[in-house]
Amino acid sequence: MTTSSPEDRPRLGPKATEDEPFDATPVPARKGLSLRALLPNAITAAALCSGLTGVRFAIGGDWGFAVMAIIFAGVLDGIDGRIARLLNAQSRFGAELDSLADSLSFGTAPAIIVYLWSLQDLPRFGWFAALAFAVCCALRLARFNAQIDTDVQPHKSLGFLTGIPAPVGAGLVFLPFYLWIATGEALFRSPYLVGPWVALIAALMISNLATLSWTSLRPRRSVRLELLAFAGLFFAALLLEPWWTLVGICAIYLALLPYGWLRYARIRRQRA
């Protein structure tokens, strides 16, 4: 019977030696959250805190800071979903958190701010107008969540939205405030003007009106430089004349509502 030398024995691994035996114990996988999955939800939470902080500013009478907090929440809300898609970190939890944050930041918070700023001078009607805005925002978001798993969505399939989005509605509902700050006219603070305007925006949020989506806007490549110049001038206008610039944004969006409806009707006829 022959004995084999250590060199003839089969090795247990590429680096196994007589002095360092091979350890076959599997290495446990690392547990914990990755920043890729946490970042979009953190931005959503920041948007929620910004919207609710606007209420705190309104209670103290800092109306400009209150409205700016809502606008900043809208900016954060606009980037959290895009970052989630960019990082491939979409989740049902993130979608539910985003809807709850939107309901508070763009429904409850603007309603309270507008009520404290103007509508409290007309307690009954003013409070009902504020309630209508907050409730319609929640109903719109509930409709959106209910249609997430729905395959047939006529507006979405053609690149349109149904009704005014919640962040846009929050921006539009402050149009009388922008005019009040920009002009100094007390008329724009009157609850008899602000109340019907709040009710109108609330109705547009839950309407079946087809509105333009950012994804449907595809400018030609030939106007790329002009668009870059416009973006720079727009940012400068926000710094120099923020309230008049916001008035202009609201006016342009409202003017595009009939165009969006007509464009949707034309595309629908062509598809039919």
TrEMBL record:
The keyword Magnesium does not apply. It holds the Pfam family CDP-OH_P_transf. InterPro entries: CDP-alcohol_PTase-I, CDP-OH_P_trans, CDP-OH_P_trans_C, CDP-OH_PTrfase_TM_dom, CDP_ALCOHOL_P_TRANSF_CS. Keywords: Lipid biosynthesis, Lipid metabolism, Membrane, Phospholipid biosynthesis, Phospholipid metabolism, Transferase, Transmembrane, Transmembrane helix. Gene3D superfamilies: 1.20.120.1760. It is found in: Membrane. The chain crosses the membrane at residues 63-79, 125-146, 158-181, 193-211, 223-240, 246-262. It is a multi-pass membrane protein. One of its GO terms (cellular component) is membrane. Belongs to the CDP-alcohol phosphatidyltransferase class-I family. This is CDP-diacylglycerol O-phosphatidyltransferase.
